[in-house]
Design a protein that fits this description.
The protein contains 8 helices and 12 strands. Strands 1, 2, 3, 4, 5, 6, 7, 8, 11 and 12 form a 10-stranded mixed β-sheet that branches. The chain has a two-stranded antiparallel sheet with strand order 9-10. The relative contact order is 0.13. It has 274 residues and is α/β, with parallel strands linked by helices. It has 2 domains: 167 residues, Spore Coat Polysaccharide Biosynthesis Protein SpsA, Chain A (Alpha-Beta Complex), CATH 3.90.550; 100 residues, no CATH class.
């Protein structure tokens, strides 16, 4: 049975991931829209096996790419579901989708946890799981935050939380965790973006609490000290060491090195402004 949901997937050179992503939605999503930004591998050819709704749009940042897709394309369903090309819908989450639409959604958007798989290991500790994301919502009620990087979705209405996971399979290539574009975009986000456009509440949703911790606590701490403190907090106090050797690699790169490089980029941009 097809659910009245339009699934939006952003791609760029995702031939290693996009098939598993599309497999996880092809059987139930009423509509699949793929927005590509100049892939030079076989991403588009793979996507054509699942949908003929493949669109080309230049990439500025993730928020604008997703906003363009939602606001500019002829989406035929009231409900939209945003998925990254390296993510899949778990059977448990699909079961909840089916149950929700069998009786009719009673809210305007749904949040769900994301499970990260790194080199075959579920990164369960270190405060990394559950990390809730708002991905399914009425298209006229929700949209993306205006962020250069690491955007979330917000809904003008009621939301509910689901238990099933979005599964994020992180590439074994460590370089993907510390890609230059991520470092530059996050640094620009901290220095230049207007935080008034974000939902920041300590007693709000998981996304609002995460924004509060990020901007009220973490980014007010001193440069280069905060990545060290954050890694120690995440690895020891939040039990990241229980994720084993692969977890050590993941938490070190994602919890320390990436953030250290962001601080280096922030320092460079501050110097250029002087």
């Amino acid at each position: 049975m097809k659910l009245p949901i339009s699934t939006i997937i952003i791609t760029h050179n995702e031939e290693k991931n996009v098939k598993a992503c599309l497999d996880s939605v092809a059987g139930w999503a009423d509509e699949i829209l793929v927005i590509d930004s100049g892939s030079t591998d076989s991403t588009r050819e793979i996507a054509h096996l699942y949908t003929d709704k493949i669109y080309e749009h230049p990439f500025e940042n993730y928020a604008r790419q997703r906003s363009w897709a939602q606001n500019s394309l002829p989406i035929r369903n009231e409900w939209v579901f945003h998925l990254d090309a390296d993510e899949q819908v778990s059977p448990e989450l699909l079961s909840e989708f089916c149950e929700t639409f069998r009786y009719g959604p009673r809210v305007d958007g749904y949040m769900m946890p994301r499970k990260t798989i790194f080199r075959g290991r579920w990164i369960k500790h270190g405060g990394h799981y559950p990390s809730y994301h708002l991905r399914l919502f009425k298209k006229d009620k929700g949209g993306s935050e205006e962020r250069f990087y690491d955007q979330h979705y917000i809904v003008n209405g009621r939301t509910a939380m689901l238990k099933g996971d979005i599964v994020n399979t992180v590439t074994p290539d460590i370089k993907a965790l510390i890609a230059k574009c991520k470092v530059v975009l996050e640094a620009r986000e901290i220095l230049y973006n207007d935080k008034r456009t974000l939902n920041i509440k300590l007693n709000g949703t998981p996304i609002e609490r995460m924004n509060w911790l990020r901007y009220k606590i973490y980014y007010r701490a001193p440069l280069f000290i905060r990545p060290i403190l954050y890694f120690l907090y995440r690895y020891f106090l939040r039990l990241g060491f229980m994720d084993g050797e692969k977890g050590l690699i993941f938490h070190f790169y994602q919890g320390f090195l990436l953030r250290f490089l962001i601080d280096m980029e922030i320092m460079k941009l501050k110097t250029l402004k002087k």
